[in-house]
Design goal:
Helices cover 17% and strands 48% of the residues. With 242 residues, it is an alpha+beta fold.
Length: 242
Amino acid sequence: MKKSLMAGVALALLAGSAVNAGAQEAKDVVAKMIAAQGGPKAMEAIKDSAVSGTLEMIQMGMNGQVTITKKDPNMIRIDIEIAGMLISQGYDGTKGWLVNPQTGTTDMPELQEKNMRRQALSPQAILNPEKFGITYELKGQEKVGDKDCYVLLQSFKDGHNATLYVDAATGLIAKIKAKAMDSTGSGEEVESETIYDDYKSEHGFMVAHKMTASQNGAPILQMTFTSVTVNANPPDSFFKMK
């Protein structure tokens, strides 16, 4: 359960349509994304954040609580309470780790660690992508549900690619497609996507309060966030393996 649960959550941290002309280049779409999030000042003001809420493992029929905490420049921790257990994973800026009551404390597998490293990136990765070796390419336009979206290919220096579907009306991310760890625990990467919905303004920053992750077309995980805090300044030790 540990591998499938954490692989599913990690997702959540992904046909042509008649989108009106306006943003014709990738940099214009990225600028629209930044503006939709509240602008550079709002993004730069957030040094750490934590979102908490409920988690549903759809295929397993299990429910729990989840908290995702991030801190600049590149730290993240995910805590899940489910079936009477607390399962945690994190990246401390250098190393990824896993803690499970059934298996103890272990180092994170290489592929999963790379994914956590990308999830841990601060808003600076959007504001200054070249600093982090991230590039964007506008690939066209598609529908996500009833939303007209720009399609952005996001490429990382480690070779990972993700496809971002940006709502042309709002500038908010509607969906992300990317390779992710198989939720069955096989250790392989599979095609995955995450739908982002129910955006609300929190501390001057737009946050998706609902995320639904799927693999190979089948929904596997849904998270609904009910609490968002920023700039609580958790100690760096909180993100380290204990």
